[in-house]
C-alpha cells in the first residue's frame, strides 16, 4: 500500500448488533443480527476530513449514556490504536473528525461496545484506503473490546465485523471462521431496558466447573456445529442449551423464566441469554409466531422506554461502509 492512501473525504461505516454465546458456545460462538423489517440494529460511525488532528462527537438514541470526556470514549482508543498500526506500516493518520451514532444500549448483551469498536475501525480503515487487512483488523478489534470488558474475546467483534455466525478458533493463526446458519430461523431479541455489566455477569460465574458440565458443554457445542454443517435443524435446536452461564446469570434478569415459559408454550426452538444479558433471544420457525413473541415481550418483559424487541435473521454482511453522510 503506498503512503498516498486513497483520499476519501467522508465515510460512514455501519456495524450490526450481535448475540454472543448463543447458549451453546460460551465465549466461542456469536451471530450478527439483521431486523426483518429492514431497519438497522447497530451503531454507525462517520469519519471525515477535518482541520484538527482529531475530533469526536456522539449522536443517537443512546449517546447520553456515553462519557462526556472524548478521551474516555472507546473511539478515542480506536483512533490511537489505529494510528499506531499505521505507523508500523510507515503510514500516518490523516486529520479527521469522528461522529458516533450510538444506536445500541450500553451493557445490553447485544455487543454494544463491539459495535462501536467495529464501526469505528471499519470507518478509519476505509477512510485511509484500507491499508489493514481483515486479520489485522480483527486483532485490533479484539484488543479494543478487551479494554472495555477486561479480557480479549472475539465472540461479538468477529460476527459484528465478518457477519454470519462465527466460531472463534484462536488456533493455528486463525481467529474465527463462519459456520452455516439455518436461514429459516427467526431470532427474536428483546432488551428490557435494564443493564447487566459484563464484569458483573462474569463475576457471578463459578471459578471452577464440574467435570460433567464441561463434558456436556463440549458435547453440545460439537453437536451444534456438526448439525449446522449437516443441515440437521432439530438436532441443532435441541442442543441450544447453556450449562456454563445461564444457570447463574438467569437470576440477574428479572422475568427471564417467564419469557422461557411463554416461548416454550408458543413452540420456540430455543430460548437463551444474549451475551451476558439482560437481552434474551428466542428462536422461532415461523415469522408470524416470531412477531407474536415480540409483541408479548414488549408487553411483559420490556421495563422502560430504553427497552425494545426485534425480530431478526442472521446478518451475513457484517460491518460495511454505507455512504458518506449520517
UniProtKB/TrEMBL annotation:
Residues 246-301 form the GHMP kinase C-terminal domain. This is Homoserine kinase. Residues 83-164 form the GHMP kinase N-terminal domain. SUPFAM superfamilies: GHMP Kinase, C-terminal domain, Ribosomal protein S5 domain 2-like. InterPro entries: GHMP_kinase_C_dom, GHMP_kinase_C_sf, GHMP_kinase_N_dom, GHMP_knse_ATP-bd_CS, Homoserine_kinase, Ribosomal_Su5_D2-typ_SF, Ribsml_uS5_D2-typ_fold_subgr. Pfam families: GHMP_kinases_C, GHMP_kinases_N. It is found in: Cytoplasm. It catalyses: L-homoserine + ATP = O-phospho-L-homoserine + ADP + H(+). Belongs to the GHMP kinase family. Homoserine kinase subfamily. Pathway: Amino-acid biosynthesis; L-threonine biosynthesis; L-threonine from L-aspartate: step 4/5. The keyword Transferase applies. It comes from Aeromonas cavernicola. Keywords: Amino-acid biosynthesis, ATP-binding, Cytoplasm, Kinase, Nucleotide-binding, Threonine biosynthesis, Transferase. Its EC number is 2.7.1.39. Catalyzes the ATP-dependent phosphorylation of L-homoserine to L-homoserine phosphate. GO terms for cellular component: cytoplasm. GO terms for biological process: threonine biosynthetic process. The gene is thrB. ATP binds at residues 105-115. PANTHER family: HOMOSERINE KINASE (PTHR20861:SF1), HOMOSERINE/4-DIPHOSPHOCYTIDYL-2-C-METHYL-D-ERYTHRITOL KINASE (PTHR20861). Its main location: cytoplasm. GO terms for molecular function: ATP binding; homoserine kinase activity. Coiled coil: none annotated.
